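F.,

This is the one I mentioned.
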């Protein structure tokens, strides 16, 4: 990075403290949040013990409740962020107090942890809790409800369980945030009451959004009962009708047509036909020898499965929710062909006629089924296949979308974070996949799991070839600069990594681009990390770091209050090696002679640097 660009960063200093878990997202959730039963008890445990182990049945909104517990704590100098849920770079534990700052509010989601990991986490929790109190930090751990029998007796006093919030109140709160005020009678319709009694909370939120969409579409021509009826129709469960229709349908081609339309719902007839033929082929269905003109045309076939072609030439089922029920039925009740369905979908996506919107919708539908049926490996396999083909560029959006959907899944998110780590650290990962990983880490993982995104982007910046490595470097630097905590975390990685010798050149380039002569320079912890980084960098004999030395010395003139700390870092970095000290001093003299103004100030700064070097080396100064 050029010195001019680096200088512009000096004005973006401490005091700028964005939260890791977005303030905007938390406020949005807070406005729609309804306290679940027993929430007062949970608050009391957190306030008194600084740690609460939050339990509750699935569907009770445990994660949302955990975020609200932390959000409602008094704002402080720390950040609200989530602890990593994978062990990266052979880390001993996610409970590393060295990564906790004063006032931090921490979330650890173990809701889907396996037995061994849950037991191991509990073992480290007590020692970690003792370190939170002096830092005025708080921790909320979301427990795996299905492993309640494994909770240690000595931790039970820290646990508290919530119940499911009232679904009617949740719906009303969401609607009120959209300026929709239904009457009590409006919310007492039998169909709505029945739906709210069985729907998980995320479906209740989706219903509110559907009502809002119909309000925006229909406008003043309709009222709340009509908006509600239309939104409930969108959510209608067609599973029973689909099961009966498929059972009654004896034609293999007609069943293939059903699934093909369900996967490419809203696509042109030619797309559905291509998918149908591909499905019959992958399942080794006998070829129809009937002459083409003696066979039924697509219009008649669509009519037979209750599908219609709209004015834009797009094919859709006539019944709302029918397409979703068809997909669910095939993946649920034909488990023996799921691998073939994955291969079929890959074949379908190779069609050059698919438009971007059609591809995006189809990828989302495939991901939904793979994740619902506990087959995240199907998503992983497609990502690997798409990124190692000659046409990998065409599949970048598809592969990135699949990974992003996997990362956002509550049950399988950790699986994909671990898989991305494995890809990022593997020597044989191809450049097409690395390119996708840079996109996914920076755009999808960073907003929710920035620590893990930082680790993965760092590995990609080291291992990627010129173009991919540069993109990863830009992404990891942008993420590290976004928050003081991440800035320190990245400096620590560049200072303490065991593989530093292997990646010395790239890590030095990252260090020089990241290291700021002003940001957090007053912190002894940051100065120690900067000293370590400069010490390694200054040992390079070709002196390509000289421009950055000039930038740091210029900062001494512009920010005089930080001058002593800046010079201390540079002088200490070369204190143990007189040859390195000599190279640093020569670079400083070049900077001094380049002055066209402030000549005296530059001379004084170089003099002070020399004095600091002498002091660090134990040499008595006579000047």
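My design for it:
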């Amino acid at each position: 990075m050029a010195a001019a660009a680096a200088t512009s960063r000096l004005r973006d200093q401490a005091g700028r403290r964005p939260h890791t878990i977005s303030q905007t997202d938390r406020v949005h959730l807070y406005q729609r949040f309804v306290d679940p039963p027993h929430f007062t008890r949970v608050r009391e445990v957190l306030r008194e013990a600084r740690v609460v182990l939050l339990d509750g049945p699935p569907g009770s909104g445990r994660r949302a409740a955990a975020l609200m517990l932390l959000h409602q704590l008094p704002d402080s100098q720390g950040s609200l962020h989530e602890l990593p849920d994978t062990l990266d770079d052979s880390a001993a534990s996610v409970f590393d107090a060295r990564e906790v700052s004063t006032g931090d509010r921490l979330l650890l989601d173990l809701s889907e942890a396996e037995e061994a990991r849950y037991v191991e986490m509990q073992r480290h929790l007590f020692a970690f809790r003792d370190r939170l109190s002096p830092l005025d930090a708080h921790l909320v751990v979301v427990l795996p409800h299905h492993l309640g029998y494994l909770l240690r007796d000595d931790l039970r006093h820290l646990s508290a369980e919530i119940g499911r919030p009232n679904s009617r109140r949740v719906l009303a709160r969401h609607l009120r945030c959209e300026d929709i005020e239904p009457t009590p009678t409006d919310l007492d319709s039998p169909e709505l009451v029945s739906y709210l009694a069985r729907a998980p909370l995320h479906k209740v939120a989706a219903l509110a959004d559907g009502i809002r969409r119909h309000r925006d579409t229909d406008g003043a021509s309709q009222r709340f009962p009509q908006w509600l009826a239309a939104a409930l129709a969108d959510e209608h469960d067609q599973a029973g009708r689909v099961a009966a229709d498929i059972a009654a349908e004896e034609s293999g081609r007609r069943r293939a047509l059903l699934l093909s339309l369900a996967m490419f719902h809203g696509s042109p007839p030619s797309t559905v036909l291509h998918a149908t033929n591909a499905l019959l082929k992958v399942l080794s269905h006998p070829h129809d020898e009937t002459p083409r003109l003696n066979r039924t045309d697509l219009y008649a076939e669509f009519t037979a499965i209750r599908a219609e072609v709209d004015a834009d030439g797009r094919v859709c089922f006539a019944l709302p929710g029918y397409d979703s029920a068809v997909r669910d039925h095939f993946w649920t009740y034909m488990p023996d062909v799921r691998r073939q369905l994955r291969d079929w979908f890959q074949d379908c996506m190779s069609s050059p006629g698919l438009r971007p919107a059609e591809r995006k919708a189809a990828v989302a539908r495939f991901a939904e089924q793979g994740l619902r049926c506990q087959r995240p490996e199907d998503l992983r396999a497609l990502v690997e296949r798409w990124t190692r083909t000659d046409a990998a560029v065409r599949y970048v959006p598809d592969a990135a979308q699949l990974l992003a959907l996997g990362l956002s899944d509550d049950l399988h998110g950790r699986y994909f974070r671990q898989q991305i780590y494995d890809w990022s650290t593997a020597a044989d990962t191809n450049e097409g996949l690395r390119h996708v990983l840079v996109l996914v880490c920076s755009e999808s993982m960073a907003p929710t799991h920035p620590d893990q995104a930082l680790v993965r982007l760092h590995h990609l910046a080291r291992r990627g070839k010129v173009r991919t490595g540069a993109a990863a470097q830009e992404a990891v630097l942008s993420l590290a600069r976004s928050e003081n905590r991440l800035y320190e975390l990245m400096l620590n990685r560049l200072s303490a990594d065991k593989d530093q010798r292997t990646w010395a050149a790239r890590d030095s380039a990252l260090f020089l681009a990241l290291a700021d002569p002003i940001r957090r320079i007053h912190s002894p912890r940051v100065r120690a990390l900067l000293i370590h980084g400069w010490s390694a960098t200054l040992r390079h004999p070709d002196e390509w770091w000289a421009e950055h030395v000039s930038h740091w010395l210029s900062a001494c003139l512009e920010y005089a209050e930080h001058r002593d700390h800046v010079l201390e870092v540079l002088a200490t970095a070369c204190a143990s090696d007189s040859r390195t000290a000599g190279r640093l001093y020569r670079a400083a003299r070049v900077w001094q002679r380049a002055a066209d103004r402030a000549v005296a100030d530059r001379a004084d700064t170089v003099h002070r640097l020399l004095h600091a070097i002498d002091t660090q080396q134990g040499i008595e100064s006579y000047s």
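Confidence is low (pLDDT under 50) at residues 1-19.

Talk soon.
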